[in-house]
Structures are given as C-alpha cells and as structure tokens.
Write a structure and sequence with these properties.
- By secondary structure, this protein is of the alpha+beta class.
- The chain is elongated and about 60 Å long.
- The chain contains 6 helices and 2 strands.
- The model has no long low-confidence stretch (mean pLDDT 85).
- The chain has 2 domains: 2-58, no CATH class; 62-122.
Length: 126
C-alpha cells in the first residue's frame, strides 16, 4: 500500500474502500487490520483513510462454514424436518473430525458430507 501511495500521491487524501468476495474474506480482513495497525504506529508518515471493508459471500473460516451448512440448507429449504437428525449427526462428525486425529483430507470429507447429504434430495449428483 505504501508503495502505491508513493507512486500515486494524489490518492493519499482520498478514502480507501476495500471490496472483494470469496477468499477476500481472508486476505482483505488481514489487510484492513494491517492498515489499522499502521495508522496507530508512530512510524506512519501519513494515515491511510480506510473508510469501509465490504465483503460479499466471504470465505472466513472453512470449518465453521462447513459445520453450519446444514442450518443454512434447512433455512433455504434444501431439506426438511425428517432429515434433521441425520444432518445433526453429520455436523457433529464434522466438528469432531480434527479432535479425532483425522488427516486434513478426511476432515474435509467429513464436513463435505453435510453438503452432499442435503443437496442429494434436490437432484445434485453425489
């Protein structure tokens, strides 16, 4: 960022709005935190006017998102009440996968099983 402002000094006085989607939930959050830390530091030659951070469908925490796919699927009507017990079993298995000592690929599969189960009734392959 500092190199950008050095190259284009006219932007130093303008508001900065960071926007993105998907994986931007990871890197823009860290970028915004770094800018705020820079603004607090005594070494900053000027303050970056970070005005907004706008994220659309951000990927923030994959395990948490996967563990909550069931609730989102139910809210969207992907499955109904009779399927809720099985979704809950799959959700618990997803949450417990890391503590069971499963390798990362198996942990990922345990969590993907929720989405596979709730999308099967609506005609998705799997």
């Amino acid at each position: 960022m500092l190199a950008f402002y050095e190259e284009y000094p006219t932007y130093k006085t303008r508001e900065l709005v960071l926007t993105g989607e998907s994986f931007a939930g990871k890197y823009l959050s860290y970028s915004a935190a770094a800018i705020l830390d820079y603004n607090k530091s005594e070494d900053s030659s000027f303050k970056i006017d970070l005005n907004n951070l706008i994220l659309s469908n951000p990927l923030v925490d994959t395990p948490t998102e996967r563990a909550n796919q069931g609730a989102v699927g139910w809210a969207l009507g992907f499955y109904d009440d009779p399927m809720t017990d099985q979704v809950e079993v799959l959700r618990r298995h997803c949450e417990e996968a890391s503590s069971l000592g499963l390798d990362p690929a198996s942990q990922s599969t345990a969590c993907k099983n929720i989405l596979n189960y709730i999308t099967k009734p609506i005609g998705s392959p799997g």
